[in-house]
């Protein structure tokens, strides 16, 4: 089939979309970046010129078709442009997590055989230089920010602006080759390679084609009526598929503006200044924002606290119904409008959500209490379900059909089926091409008919067609007495409390459920300051008797809630430990997208888990940690093991 007919309206590649935008929306803003406290802006025509200059510079450097170009750094227009420039010359961009260690980068770059690297700053340059002897195919590195690099050996280093200038100066000679390479691109050409988070092993390189990215961007944009006038804030890791589809795929398809914050520290300030109309965040971000709100209310005057509590009661009662256009009494509407004036409006403005028309959360399950809190404010927050191998979108919640207990209906073009063991399978235009250099895993994940195994257990509601995810299929099991064990359900309920940052629940094949808890240092530290409680470290605060008693009350409150669910009532937590350290991606306990690596945690903290089941009241342990500079160390602690009250369920007594 010809390229014109094969693509979405003839748009068969990222460069084709970019050219369309430069032609149709030339004077409209395409990218903004805050630097030195000032917002800088580029129109679509300016963006196209910047990207073409870089692409020509790539040709001057000798970038060949099929080369892999690693991109490492925080969200900046220049780094998004480098991915598009790579595609213009037939190369494959491979964005990496900016907080990845040098060792993690070595694996990824060696696996794909990256010849070139685009590094955002000195930190990323240093990490690549540390591992360059392991990178047999690495040839050159292009750096964006020159600060700190003046005295570095320039044999393999070239400044980003110099590459662009070389491209501009040699345009006449190089442009025919660039155009020829763009003309070769079609729907089946590789668009990007993204690595999985590696929750169970080494990350896998997911190859996504132009077809995957463009068809998904097109259908998802139409699903939510995304517009050329929308604004998004690009702050999530560039290596994550969510950021790529929102900040590149949908941005190019719709022609809306991608805004990059100055830094992680200024993200919330920049969010308020931009006021995005389309917003996406994983549950951890919404959890942290809610924690900050609750901390502020603890510091508020008694009058403000009473007003907040009263109007949040009104919001929880009628907010979601008003948002969905359902009937609400006149008195409730008036009360809600008063709450909008006094509480909800100022709060949304503080959070940066005043203009949000479409909001999504995904990546893992969000606690229903957290989800309902935002919707009660009038924020159109919805859930979607997806993965890297699907180019994000599998299911999403249509307006008017938003619920906290489902992840929506199938996205346009997606088919679903549930296997006999409850595992969810899907098929769609977004299904990945392959795992790079891993035919065996590709065959295990995607069958010959294009059905992909998600690894998640769930079911489709017959009445609504909505998909409900129970948990990761490998994590769902049975307690020792044969009842269902689904840890994520309990973990999300626990994380609703501002004092709790992370939890890991155990119980598969065990006589009862137990849990690890990480306190939220910001929230608990604020409590300690208000009560004049001195502490010198996370470990000291986590072991404070009053903190342990507070966490115990949270666990027991969740147990009372879990007991109401007949299917999952056996997941009540009988014993728990507040860990002496925060679970950390640098220590291998979390992925770079902040997902719990359950098997590694079970192995690393096996002594603590065993103590929770052998009746011990305390456990002395030593744990290896990784410092910010990469050095290894160890911390020791004696931890209290707490018993939590569990609830009677029907005629069954939950024995401790």
Description:
This protein is an alpha/beta fold and 656 residues long. The radius of gyration is 26 Å and the shape is globular. The chain has 22 helices and 29 strands. It has a five-stranded parallel beta sheet, with helices on both faces. Strands 12-13-14-15-16 form a five-stranded mixed beta sheet. It has three domains: 3-280, Rossmann fold (3-Layer(aba) Sandwich); 283-472, 3-Layer(aba) Sandwich (Rossmann fold); 477-643, ANL, C-terminal domain (GMP Synthetase, Chain A, domain 3, 2-Layer Sandwich), CATH 3.30.300.30. The N and C termini lie far apart (66 Å). Mean pLDDT is 92; it is low at 1-5 and 650-656.
Overview in brief:
Helices cover 39% and strands 22% of the residues. The protein has 656 residues and is α/β, with parallel strands linked by helices. α3 (44-61) crosses α7 and α3 (44-61) crosses α8.
Task: Please summarize the sheet with the most strands.
Answer: 5 strands, parallel
Number of strands: 29
Question: Whole-number radius of gyration?
Answer: 26 Å
Structural class by secondary-structure content: alpha/beta
Oligomer class: single chain
Distance between the termini: 66 Å
- Proportion in β-strands: 15-25%
- Overall outline: globular
Q: What count of domains describes the coordinates?
A: 3
Mean pLDDT: 92
By CATH reckoning, the class of the largest domain would read Alpha Beta
Strand order of the largest sheet: 4-3-5-6-7
- Classified in CATH, the superfamily of the largest domain is ANL, N-terminal domain
Poorly predicted residue ranges: 1-5, 650-656
Instruction: Determine the number of helices (DSSP H or I, runs of at least 4 residues).
Output: 22
The assigned CATH architecture of the largest domain is 3-Layer(aba) Sandwich
Stated plainly, the CATH topology of the largest domain is called Rossmann fold
Helix content: 25-40%
């Amino acid at each position: 089939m010809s390229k014109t007919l094969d693509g979405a309206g003839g748009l068969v590649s990222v460069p084709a979309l970019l050219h369309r935008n430069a032609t149709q929306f030339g004077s409209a803003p395409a990218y903004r970046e805050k630097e030195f406290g000032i917002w800088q802006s580029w129109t679509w025509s300016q963006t196209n010129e910047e990207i073409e200059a870089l692409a020509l510079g790539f040709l001057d450097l000798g970038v060949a078709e099929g080369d892999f170009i690693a991109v490492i750094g925080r969200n900046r227009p220049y780094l998004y442009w480098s991915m598009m420039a790579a595609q213009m010359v037939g190369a494959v961009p491979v964005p990496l997590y900016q907080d990845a260690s040098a060792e993690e980068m070595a694996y990824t770059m060696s696996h794909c055989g990256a010849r070139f690297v685009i590094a955002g700053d000195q930190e990323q340059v240093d990490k690549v230089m540390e591992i360059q002897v392991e990178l047999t195919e690495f040839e050159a590195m292009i750096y964006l920010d020159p600060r700190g690099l003046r005295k570095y050996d320039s044999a393999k280093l070239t400044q980003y602006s110099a590459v662009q200038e070389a491209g501009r100066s040699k345009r006449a000679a190089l442009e025919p080759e660039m155009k020829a390479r763009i003309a070769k691109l079609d729907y089946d050409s590789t668009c990007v390679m993204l690595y999985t988070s590696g929750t169970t092993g080494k990350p896998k390189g997911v190859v996504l084609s132009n077809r995957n990215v463009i068809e998904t961007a097109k259908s998802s944009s139409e699903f939510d009526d995304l517009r050329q006038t929308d604004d998004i804030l690009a702050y999530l890791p560039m290596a994550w598929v969510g950021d790529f589809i929102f900040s590149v795929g949908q941005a190019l398809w719709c022609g809306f503006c991608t805004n990059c914050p100055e830094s992680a520290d200024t993200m919330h300030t920049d969010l308020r200044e931009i006021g995005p109309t389309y917003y996406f965040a994983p549950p951890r971000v919404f959890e942290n924002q809610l924690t900050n709100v609750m901390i502020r209310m603890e510091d508020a005057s008694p009058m403000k606290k009473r007003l907040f509590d009263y109007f949040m009661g009104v919001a929880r009662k009628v907010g979601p119904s008003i948002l969905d256009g359902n009937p609400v009494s006149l008195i409730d509407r008036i009360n809600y409008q008063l709450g909008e004036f006094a509480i909800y409006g100022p709060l949304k403005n503080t959070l940066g959500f005043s203009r949000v028309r479409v909001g999504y959360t995904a990546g893992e399950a969000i606690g229903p209490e957290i989800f309902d809190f935002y919707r009660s404010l009038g924020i159109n927050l919805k859930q979607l379900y997806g993965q890297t191998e699907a180019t994000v979108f599998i299911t999403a919640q249509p307006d008017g059909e938003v619920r906290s207990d489902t992840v929506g209906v199938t996205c346009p073009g997606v088919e679903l089926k549930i296997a006999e063991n409850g595992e969810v399978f899907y098929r769609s235009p977004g299904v990945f091409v392959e795992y790079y250099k891993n035919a065996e895993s590709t065959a295990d994940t995607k069958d010959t008919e294009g059905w992909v195994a998600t690894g998640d257990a769930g079911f489709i509601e017959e009445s609504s067609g909505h998909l409900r995810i129970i948990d990761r299929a490998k994590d769902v099991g049975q307690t020792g007495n044969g009842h269902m064990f689904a840890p994520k359900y309990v973990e999300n309920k626990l994380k609703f409390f501002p004092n709790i940052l992370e939890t890991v629940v155990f119980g598969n094949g065990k006589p009862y459920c137990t849990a690890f808890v990480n306190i939220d240092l910001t929230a608990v530290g604020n409590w300690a300051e208000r009560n004049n409680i001195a502490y010198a470290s996370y470990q000291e605060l986590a072991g404070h008797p009053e903190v342990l008693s507070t966490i115990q009350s949270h666990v027991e409150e969740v147990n009372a809630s879990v007991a109401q669910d007949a299917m999952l009532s056996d997941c009540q937590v009988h014993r728990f430990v507040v860990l002496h350290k925060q679970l950390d991606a640098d220590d291998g306990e979390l992925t770079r997208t902040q997902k719990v690596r359950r098997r590694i945690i079970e192995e690393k903290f096996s002594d603590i888990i065993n103590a929770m089941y052998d009746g011990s009241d305390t456990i002395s342990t030593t744990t290896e940690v990784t410092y910010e500079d990469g050095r290894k160390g160890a911390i020791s602690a004696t931890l209290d093991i707490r018993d939590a009250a569990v609830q009677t369920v029907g005629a069954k007594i939950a024995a401790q």
